[in-house]
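Inverse folding, one chain.
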């Protein structure tokens, strides 16, 4: 069973997996910005995943696609947007 969640700056794709742990996939295209900006977005999403993976309700494959404007977000904004989207759909325990 999978789920697709749209936020203003990200598309989140979640799919249950049969392994024992959650996995992360990232797609940040050149539309987001230059290499420095793309790497910063990826670092922040990885850090969110690392901190929050124990709160996932199921073992899932978590794939994030960054949209235009994601590079303009601060660390806190990225965390808040991802957390709010996942909590609203019931995939993350508060």
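Residues assigned per position:
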């Amino acid at each position: 069973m999978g789920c697709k969640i749209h936020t203003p700056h990200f598309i989140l794709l979640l799919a249950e997996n049969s392994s024992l742990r959650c996995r992360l996939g990232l797609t940040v295209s050149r539309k987001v910005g230059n290499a420095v900006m793309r790497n910063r977005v990826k670092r922040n999403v990885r850090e969110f995943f690392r901190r929050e993976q124990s709160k996932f309700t199921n073992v899932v494959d978590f794939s994030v696609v960054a949209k235009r404007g994601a590079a303009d977000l601060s660390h806190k904004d990225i965390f808040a947007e991802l957390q709010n989207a996942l909590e609203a759909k019931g995939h993350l325990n508060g």
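The mean pLDDT is 90. The beta strands are 2-6, 10-16, 23-27, 60-66.
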